[in-house]
Amino acid sequence: MILKHTVILLLSVSLSACMNFSIPEGIYFRGEYEGKDNKQPGQKNNIEQNIKQNEEQIDKDFLLDPQYFNVVKEVNGNKMIENPANILVMLNKEFSLPESYVPANLVVPNVEFSFGDEDVPKRYLREEAARALEELFALAEQNGIELFAVSGYRSYSRQQEIFNAEKENKGVEKALQAVALPGKSEHQTGLAIDVISRGVGLKEEFSETKEGKWVKENAHRAGFIIRYPKGKESITGYQYEPWHLRYVGKEKAAVIYENNLTLEEYFQKVKKI
């Protein structure tokens, strides 16, 4: 205790005796500056600037809740999706749906179908997608555009029949480019719908019609994307299908549309919150 008081006393005397004494910048005495910011001039501003830049680099459009990512389990060499009801489920040649999966809330959208009033499975969509399709058709009508729905929900077994028929007609290689294998078709999710115009069926020529052009530029307004766009075949694994719409919700559809992305590219960019 005696030594401590002696040091303090000597320090006090030394400081009072040295009129030109200056404390090096950044050094402070406990008590006098305690609790104050002791960063050197400019250092604090630099830190705040770095924090601001990091915040600006995080694009909120590409932050996504974990529930929207595929939950996958490998079964017999296949990547099986365990959360198929996910509205953003990414289904392609890499991932598969269980053979038994049937969406729980399938309803018939109140829109015109190319095959009339026949009550068949392809008339159905998941309720959220069905309401969105009604909105899309209403927007189209307001703009003088006439659309027809062709095919919505499709079961695993029905997809098998379609693939077998395509394989028999065009061979395996071409069939794989045009038709999804059973369990890998978006139609099984109840979130996909094919649309056409009067006089033009499921053909690439649909993209050249005024209806096809309108769909390309406006589908996102109701929450849909062109799932297999032109020029992205190597990414999606499928040929260009201007008629194939996939529901993802308005917010995500706008981001995908504005950034010219496929669903695969979108998931490459997003980060879990």
From the coordinates shown, what is the CATH architecture?
2-Layer Sandwich
Beta-sheet strand percentage?
A: 5-15%
Number of domains: 1
The 3D shape can be described as globular
Topology:
Layout (H helix, E strand, L loop, with lengths): L1 H16 L25 H15 L5 E2 L7 E4 L2 E4 L13 E2 L9 E2 L17 E2 H16 L5 E4 L4 H15 L1 H7 L13 E5 L13 H9 L5 E5 L4 H4 L4 E7 L2 H9 L4 H7 L1 E2 L1
Parallel strand pairs: 1-11, 3-4
Antiparallel strand pairs: 2-3, 5-6, 7-8, 8-10, 9-10
Helix pairs in contact: 4-5
Notes on the structure:
- The protein has one domain: 2-Layer Sandwich (Muramoyl-pentapeptide Carboxypeptidase, domain 2).
- With 273 residues, the protein is of the alpha+beta class.
- The protein has helices at 2-17, 43-57, 127-142, 156-170, 172-178, 210-218, 233-236, 250-258, 263-269, and strands spanning 63-64, 72-75, 78-81, 95-96, 106-107, 125-126, 148-151, 192-196, 224-228, 241-247, 271-272.
- It is built from nine helices and eleven strands.
- Helices cover 36% and strands 14% of the residues.
- Helix 4 packs across helix 5.
Task: Please tag this protein with its features.
273 residues; alpha+beta; Muramoyl-pentapeptide Carboxypeptidase, domain 2; 4-stranded antiparallel beta sheet; 3-stranded mixed beta sheet; 9 helices
